[in-house]
Design goal:
single chain; alpha+beta; 7-stranded beta/alpha barrel; Immunoglobulin-like; 4 domains; ten-stranded antiparallel β-sheet; 23% helix; binds 2-acetamido-2-deoxy-beta-D-glucopyranose; binds zinc ion
């Protein structure tokens, strides 16, 4: 019975297609409605923009609850779209967010699934983008972007095969666009990118010059292979004014019944034709896109399609009387293919689309910093995910653990959404994101702990301490004896300076895996940290030691004992000392800092013989107040940064400061004001200075929003108004004050926020001989507004909304007061020949940090007994990879294969040695298994690389500088003994493995 119904359904579908061959189901470019060569082809693109959380939570949007906030129910959108498409094979629809699609798909019966499969295989329903969410581009780190595409695309490929494979980037709503994102799209094998938001001036100039379509040269290192066809949409992503037929809109439906007094198709059709003509003057070919949709549209898709059917018919009916307009249902890929077929020549673009300005006073640069704790939590989630995926693979039973890893894969996908990591969702939604992430982290950590246990014969319980960011950890505080296991997710050995919260000045004995006593130091926790609202820990000090040479993809365990014999006071290593006149105050003369004047925070850096002056200061910008009714009345808010005047210093004149010196670390604790303090520290032997900041609660008594920055300055440094920022943690982009290389920035009235850029991992100045860089621990907004200066916005609190929909002021509170945030900046300085390697390696070390696992030992155990029970040191790799390579991904894959991604972390010409291409032998790289075959895929691992071919485009530049082209191979199979990587290249492989050594 069931089967019979299905068959009827399918055949009626097939017959419904007027111009379709009954046997051939085609998807992709072949399924496009034909365009007419001598006509203006109008591509109607029905779509729904479904935010993975914003004003409502992910589940509220999916189920359609809380509709008083926003009428939106994704489950009914998908229900009704499937029904409307099944009624008429002419119709098309694109779907973007796998997070929602998946929630829906799992709940459908076979009948509906069958219908959907049919729609996908006939090209009526096309997946586009296809990642778990439509990710933000400014704050997201490349690893998390790649991961969320991999996960979304994997599900689509597994379910729908080739027809479910997206090949178009659809970033219609993110508030600015990065080169790295464009480059990732090319590596995903995509043919183009469409988006809605770009600087208003750039948009109007491009429309005027007919260059709203261009070839984006997204990576100088990857060359032509990273060229991406890019289309800036005409009407952002909405339908033309008056043609929004959705139930949420007020436009009249189209009525073509001539007998009715309500007949309107002629008038509506003619007005739309005027609009079409106007739009077509601004694009190069005889094709234009009409985006027919908006946020959460199509809950009653039949209504939308009904009117579109009629207006399309009306437009085409005029062809018999000589009209040269051809209207079709289409998708962005069908549009793109039609444009490509014209063989036009396009201009190129080599910078990015940041910052985004929607009006003269309205720069979307606040979201680079909004919700700093959420941005940090997201980073941490990535770190934990990589660790648990690696441990799952090296356990050789990877997919056994996938059910517990998938929630974090998905939570991280959700976090990349352009209202999640951006901090632009409502507070209750931000709380829900934290819930989703935190629950998923717990599951992944359980997997990691369980897998670490396999190396023990005892039943050691490995726990994590997730409050180390406020110097709290129950196990280290309350145990007489415990084991600290540090797992290093990098594919090279690394040194970690461990800080563990402890109760008082007890002495501890720390033994390394060989039983050797390690030098420790005890440093008091600053009072401002002890005062953090909600901190319940009794720890007042931190036990600090160097854990060196942590093995690649492996761990070392440290046996830590309270020394009950020691005299508490006398044995304390760290004592406050007075600044000494004749030497540096922090670090050593090879890399150290001398305090010249603590009140004005003037220092001299001593770096390999150089003496460089340095100032540091905290300031805040007053947030602009306004009612948002006019652009010049725009208020600063979750999206927008609009300062009222220049920065106001925060620090009191008489700063209280203390210096603590010991054998492991030297640090100055500075109280700047009653809500801002910092620690500047230098670990022995390390190559950078750490500036730890603690900001909040930001005062609210005056009701003026405050946006806090940390500003570093090297007076008289000559960087010529130029600075460099990273793109999603990878290639550097040159920034020049009040200048954009690909359009004419007429007048930058907002000359502070208009010079802000996202700093995903680092910002750098150079005077041609030296480099000065600040790296961070989470994405932030930043700039260099004056030569020698670097500023990063660390926290913001405001009391007005900026009127882009959130409807709430970004006034984060917790424990009844303004949110307190603690974070770190890392300062490096040195000569150009050495600095790139310092910066790249440091950035990587801060992105993928050793994960801490602690296990309490109840009964006192001797080290030699411990060694019998526990494998104190282990590496999953026989050798480490060279410094310029990172094993970017190691995760369980399908049918006993693993997914392996390698990345060259340097650009060309950064470092004499490390910027060179490398060739690796992966065959016997891992301890427990041998790689028997490697099959290369596109970046998303959803297509064999040899099967991908991208459309080619003609550009107006000859591209003579392109020396770094990557050869695309026809070979699927790659010899594991010889895997080559060029600078900035990422290669993705599905690997078959053979166990070489069993683990317990
Ligand atoms: C994609 O899915 C198809 C069909 O299930 C499968 O044959 C193919 O191997 C998959 N591609 C990759 C790269 O996994
Ligand atoms: Zn959106």
């Amino acid at each position: 019975m069931k089967i019979f119904i299905l068959l009827t359904l399918i055949s009626s579908n097939v017959l419904a297609g007027p111009c379709r061959n009954t046997n051939a189901k085609k998807c992709g470019y072949e399924s496009c409605h034909p365009v007419k060569i001598d006509y203006l082809n109008v591509h109607f693109v029905p779509h729904s923009h479904d935010d993975v959380g914003w004003l409502k939570t992910v589940d509220q949007y999916y189920y359609g609850t809380n509709n008083s906030i926003q009428a939106a129910s994704v489950q009914f959108i998908l229900d009704s779209v499937v029904e409307a498409l099944s009624k008429d094979s002419n119709r098309r629809f694109i779907y973007v967010e796998t997070a929602f699609f998946w929630k829906w798909w799992e709940k459908q019966n076979e009948n509906i699934k069958m219908q959907v499969r049919y729609l996908v295989s006939s090209g009526q329903l096309e997946f586009i983008g296809g990642a778990w969410s439509m990710n933000d581009e400014a704050n997201a780190n490349y690893i998390s972007i790649i991961d969320q595409f991999t996960w979304g695309l994997r599900k689509l490929n597994d379910t729908f095969g080739a027809c479910g494979r997206p090949h178009i980037g659809w970033q219609i709503d993110p508030f600015g666009h990065t080169k790295q994102m464009a480059s990732l799209f090319t590596q995903l094998g995509f043919d183009g990118l469409f988006f809605g938001r770009l600087d208003v001036e750039e948009k109007s100039q491009r429309l005027k010059n007919k260059t709203a379509e261009m070839i984006w040269k997204s990576s100088p290192n990857l060359g032509q292979s990273a060229d991406l066809f890019t289309h800036a949409l005409y009407n952002r992503y909405s339908s033309p004014n008056g043609y929004c037929f959705d139930v949420l809109c007020e436009s009249d439906p189209i009525i073509d019944d001539k007998e009715s007094p309500e007949y309107n198709v002629k008038q509506k059709g003619e007005t739309l034709i005027d609009y079409i003509h106007k739009q077509s003057l601004q694009y190069k070919t005889n094709n234009i896109i009409l985006t027919m949709g908006d946020d959460f549209h199509y809950t009653a898709a039949g209504i939308n399609f009904h009117s579109m059917d009629k207006i399309i018919n009306y437009i085409n009916s005029k062809q018999s009387s000589g009209s040269k307009i051809n209207a079709i249902y289409s998708t962005p890929s069908c549009y793109l293919k039609a444009v490509n077929d014209r063989n036009e020549t396009f201009t190129t673009k080599s910078d990015d689309f940041l910052p985004y300005k929607s009006d003269k006073h309205t720069y979307w640069t606040g979201y680079f910093t909004s919700r700093p704790t959420q941005k940090y939590f997201e980073r941490k989630g990535n770190n934990i995910l990589q660790v648990c995926k690696q441990l799952a693979v090296t356990s050789l039973e990877g997919h056994k653990y996938e059910p517990k890893i998938n929630p974090l894969r998905e939570a991280m996908g959700v976090m990349q959404h352009h209202d999640a990591i951006t901090g632009t969702a409502k507070q209750h939604v931000a709380n829900d994101y934290a819930r989703i992430l935190s629950e998923a982290i717990t599951e992944c950590e359980d997997v990691s702990s369980m897998l670490l246990q396999r190396y023990d014969s005892s039943s050691t319980k490995y726990e994590t301490c997730n409050l180390l960011n406020i110097s709290a950890c129950t196990i280290s505080e309350q145990s007489e004896q415990f084991i600290l296991t540090l797992y290093n997710p990098l594919s090279r050995p690394i040194t970690e300076f461990v800080r563990l919260p402890i109760m008082d000045n007890n002495k501890y004995i720390v033994l390394d895996p060989q039983g050797k006593n390690i030098i420790t130091q005890i440093v008091p926790i600053p009072q401002s940290v002890l005062n953090i609202p909600g901190r319940e820990s009794l720890a007042t000090s931190e036990l600090v030691f160097e854990a060196n040479d942590l093995p690649p993809l492996g761990y070392k365990s440290y046996h830590i004992n309270k020394d009950r014999n020691s005299n508490k006071k006398r044995r304390t290593h760290t004592t406050p000392t007075q600044p000494q006149i004749d030497s540096v105050d922090l670090g050593d003369t090879r890399f150290g800092l001398k305090i010249n004047n603590i009140d004005s925070r003037q220092f001299t850096m001593h770096i390999s013989g150089l003496e460089v002056p340095l100032q540091h200061e905290f300031f805040y910008y007053k947030s602009m107040n306004g009612d948002n009714k006019k652009d010049y009345k725009r208020a600063s808010g979750a999206y927008i940064f609009r300062p009222n005047g220049t920065a106001v210093p925060i620090c009191d004149h008489h700063n209280e400061s203390k210096i603590f010196k010991g054998p492991v670390v030297q640090e100055i604790h500075i109280i700047c004001s009653n809500w801002t303090s910092q620690v500047i520290r230098k670990y022995k032997g390390d190559d950078h200075l750490e500036f730890e900041w603690l900001v909040g609660p930001i005062p609210d008594e005056d009701n003026i929003g405050k946006e806090v920055i940390s500003r570093f300055k090297i007076p008289s440094y000559k960087n010529d108004k130029t600075f460099y920022t990273d793109s999603n943690g990878r290639e550097f982009i040159k920034r020049v004050l009040n200048y954009r290389s690909s359009f004419d920035l007429k007048e930058n009235v907002e000359n502070i926020s208009g010079n802000y850029y996202p700093i995903t991992s680092q910002i750098m100045l150079t005077d041609g001989k030296t480099q000065f860089a600040i790296l961070n621990d989470r994405a932030q907004g930043g700039s260099s507004l004056d030569d020698g200066e670097i500023e990063l916005m660390v926290h913001r609190r405001m009391f007005l909304d900026d009127a882009f929909g959130v409807g709430e002021a970004l006034n984060e509170t917790s424990y009844g007061t303004g949110l307190v945030v603690r974070g770190q900046h890392y300062l490096t300085f040195g000569t150009i020949d050495k600095q790139f390697s310092v910066q790249r390696l440091l950035a990587q070390r801060k992105l993928l940090r050793p994960q801490y696992f602690l296990s309490k030992k109840d009964s006192v155990v001797k080290q030699n007994e411990l060694l019998k029970e526990i494998t104190m040191q282990y590496s999953s790799m026989r050798n480490s990879l060279p410094k310029n390579v990172q094993l970017l991904t190691l995760e369980p894959w399908k049918e006993n294969t693993i997914l392996l991604r390698l990345e060259h972390i340097f650009e060309y010409n950064e470092d004499k040695n490390l910027s060179k291409p490398v060739t690796l032998n992966l065959e016997d790289l891992f301890t427990n298994f041998r790689i028997t075959s490697l099959h290369e895929t596109t970046l998303g691992a959803n297509q064999w690389l040899s099967e991908n071919s991208r459309l080619s485009w003609k550009t107006d530049d000859e591209d003579t500088l392109n020396s770094h082209n990557i050869e695309n191979t026809d070979q699927v199979s790659v010899n594991p003994k010889q895997v080559a990587l060029t600078p900035m290249q990422i290669r993705t492989f599905v690997a078959e493995i053979k166990t070489t050594q069993s683990v317990k």
